[in-house]
Amino acid sequence: QLQLVESGGGLVQPGGSLRLSCAASGFTLDYYAIAWFRQAPGKEREGVSCISSSGSSTNYADSVKGRFTISRDNAKNTVYLQMNSLKPEDTAVYYCAADGPCSDYYTITPSDFGSWGQGTQVTVSS
User: From the CA atom positions of the chain, what is the Rg in Å?
Assistant: First the structure.
């Protein structure tokens, strides 16, 4: 199993920004599509965004389009999720995942991905 470590979560006011990081440990991210999922209390885990191994394809959930941006820096073995204009409904534990598909037209699901990080809490509240 691939080891992933998320960081960058925290408490932010509505309208604020956070940048999450997903770092790979013990392997090279270059060959893998990476996805971000989130899970709010009492809700199912949902796909937020993904980026292909080359970075040429990205995908976003409708709820975050125009506010979140996924990117990768293979030299740093890290994938980022820049989250702007945050809303209270963005509050969740955010997970990164590897070893799954990502394309412009495919909606990712948790069962698509085989390796997961431990998650980082994002709380949007005034």
Answer: 13
Q: Which two structure tokens, joined as six digits, stand for 113?
A: 């991905």
Instruction: Specify the pairing of strand 58-60 against strand 68-73.
Output: unpaired
| Sign of the four-CA dihedral 111, 114, 48, 55 | negative
pLDDT tens track for 76-89: 999 999 999 999 99
Q: Is the dihedral of CA 33, 108, 103, 65 positive or negative?
A: negative
Structural element, H or E, at residue 39: strand 34-39
* Contact residues for 123 (Cβ-Cβ < 8 A; gap 6+): 9, 10, 11, 12, 91
CA dist., res. 121 & res. 98, Å (int): 19
Model confidence pLDDT, tens digit, residues 23-45: 998 888 889 999 999 999 999 99
User: Do the strands 78-83 and 46-51 form a parallel or antiparallel pair, or are they unpaired?
Assistant: unpaired
63 in Cβ contact with 43 (< 8 Å)? no
Which DSSP state fits 103?
-
